[in-house]
Amino acid sequence: MTQPEQSPAETEPVLQGPGPEGELRRDEPSADRARGRPSGEARKPIRVSASASLKEDDGDADDGAPLCDPVIVSDAFSLYYGSTVGVEDITMDICPCSATAIIGPSGCGKSTFLRSINRMNDLVPSARAEGRLVVSGVNVYDKRVNLVNLRQQVGMVFQRPNPFPKSIFDNIAFGPRLQGIRRRGDLEELVEQCLRDAALWDEVKDDLRKSALALSGGQQQRLCIARALATRPRVLLMDEPCSALDPIATGRIEELIGQLKPDYTIVIVTHNMQQAARVSDRTAFFCLGKLIEYGLTRQVFTNPHEEETENYITGRFG
Fold first, then answer.
1. What mean pLDDT is predicted for residues 49-60?
2. Entry pTM
3. Which CATH number belongs to the domain containing residue 69 in this structure?
């Protein structure tokens, strides 16, 4: 995969391998990092960041929009599959300890952007990236980034549950064992904590040796969330995690997202606009590979700035 060129200010090593407790080693972001689109463009998307919350003319600017030190920063980020645009010129900040929903019609680049955050798109041979995508101060597309370490810090939950063909216990313990945790007592404590965090412990505590494949679909998805939490990530990516679940299981996943928000930065892709309104603090609307609008969820759904956003939310297309 072709990597974006590095500026002279970025020539020092960024990641040389896992740091203490598996944390990402970070570089200092350049002082002249772009804070938005070029002034000549017709549309400038809303950006929630450490220096600004919403557009100056937004009446809801101080209504619940926190200033933050963003965990994820996308600066004019683009990803292409050969000559085909996946996403183009995405500029947005994602705040810590919150849920950000990405909505939009099919094929608009939602999942492409989500998978770019932990470089899952590297599996596509023709994919190439441009711009900067920063997680915890680290440009993840720097060629020296340790991908194993990155994916420990940026967990992923997919559209369909994908438990390993192992026991419930071994599913959760898989990642920690790779990180070097071997003591039985430590693993048992970690497995219990992750299952509790995923609201699954009470349902499986007496069946930890049972095959994970014997669980229901909703239980399997919560198990996959617990497995992602086991590597102690800072960011949790969710790619339509409820699309294959029944309403009851969907409700439990949504409740779980609310419980996890105080400790994790959650980015969720969803086709369900009602779900986005229920679980997210901020919402980004993508269309045809571009970020059309980004702001507080209540503002985006009740007072969108862009006509395209309003047309999508009101069902005029998509």
1. 36
2. 0.80
3. 3.40.50.300
